[in-house]
Amino acid sequence: MRLGILGSGSGSNMQAILDGVADGSIPATIALVLSDNPQGYILERAKKAGIPTGVIDCRGFKSKCPEEAQEETAAALKAAGVDLVCLAGFMRLVRAPLLEAFPDRIINIHPALLPAFPGLQAWKQALEAGVAETGCTVHYVDGGVDTGPSILQGRVPVLVGDTPESLHERILAEEHRIYPEAIRMVAKSLKL
Fold first, then answer.
1. Count of the separate structural domains present in the chain
2. Is 176 considered catalytic here?
3. What is the pLDDT of residues 23-58, one digit of tens each?
4. CATH at 49
5. Contact residues for 140 (Cβ-Cβ < 8 A; gap 6+)
6. Which one of 110, 139, 168, 176 is the catalytic residue?
7. pLDDT tens track for 117-161
8. If 0-12 CB within 10 Å is exposed, 13-18 middle and 19+ buried, where does residue 70 land?
9. Which domain holds residue 111?
10. What is the pTM of this model?
């Protein structure tokens, strides 16, 4: 199975996937890593691992990924022979051109137990809501904001005295555990 990874930031989830590929626990190779942020450390991580990289040109938009950019992204992923697209901290909504190019083959990791706390800074939303437990969800991507069907969840307790940073750090550790497992599950279900 050939993976394409899209990210915007440090790439710690990409690193967890890369580690799983390297140790043989994920039956895949990472074919391409793309970022909408030319300075995203995810690109540096990929380059150090010898993985081809590219930058998604979002035409100057801060949060939108225009249709042309999604078409170019889909074309680059197809050209790299990608079977499954993994969003790893990709901070833009995926829409029709990319969804149509990879139907039911785009997955995302979100720092909450969906359907609770979709959108940005879910760990802050959880703290503000006063919940006793939160976590992370790997889900299929559809046209909505964190609305696709769930694949796997990991639970994290909210501790007395938690700050947004301390809670986010524990959720991130759980993300690194469940994302590789979810990729294995998807690969098995797709028979890749």
1. 1
2. no
3. 999 999 999 999 999 999 999 999 999 999 999 999
4. 3.40.50.170
5. 104, 106, 107, 108, 148, 149, 151
6. 110
7. 999 999 999 999 999 999 999 999 998 999 999 999 999 999 999
8. buried
9. 2-190
10. 0.96
